[in-house]
Amino acid sequence: xxxxxxxxxxxxxxxxxxxxxxxxxxxxxxxxxxxxxxxxxxxxxxxxxxxxxxxxxxxxxxxxxxxxxxxxxxxxxxxxxxxxxxxxxxxxxxxxxxxxxxxxxxxxxxxxxxxxxxxxxxxxxxxxxxxxxxxxxxxxxxxxxxxxxxxxxxxxxxxxxxxxxxxxxxxxxxxxxxxxxxxxxxxxxxxxxxxxxxxxxxxxxxxxxxxxxxx
Length: 215
Prior knowledge:
There is one protein chain. By secondary structure, the protein is of the alpha+beta class. The chain has helices at residues 39-44, 70-81, 157-164, 178-181; strands spanning 10-14, 18-23, 50-52, 61-68, 86-94, 101-105, 108-110, 118-120, 129-138, 143-150, 189-197, 204-208. Strands 1, 2, 3, 4, 5, 6, 9, 10, 11 and 12 form a ten-stranded mixed sheet that branches. The longest helix is centred in the middle third of the chain and has 12 residues, at 70-81.
């Protein structure tokens, strides 16, 4: 692996084909209408050929994968489309989850009157599947730490699915009730790990970074 730049962003992996950084909560993945500062711009300031492959919500922290050059971007984008890139998130949610593991299979669609919110829509929604596994329950604070695997990649999928399950994510300013929002100054959702086959070498690549929140 070549030497990594020693300035922001936080570099987790880089080679001639791709790179992975740890995006902080509160930062856009790509430029907004009136906000040019974003993870893509900060990465490209150091690695000019870096191109976005996928995005994280502004409020979500964690691993973002970038391709180096158009050809590699096409390869990695196809891998995402074929669900060959495996993502795992960690969240802290309101309430004590009853089941230790399971799936949430609920179709999602845009909630147009309340954009950018999404909603469960059995008539017009697109298929969305999330797998979950409880990591720890905190009976003192009435919360659960849970690992989430989005099999599909719908907008706000994890946030809406956990809300639909009755366990909104702490600090979620879009979906959680006011008292649940107030339990954390940030959204307690972190993209913890990525696993994929390297498009050039064929080797399995696994990268992880623990969430910055303890509970």
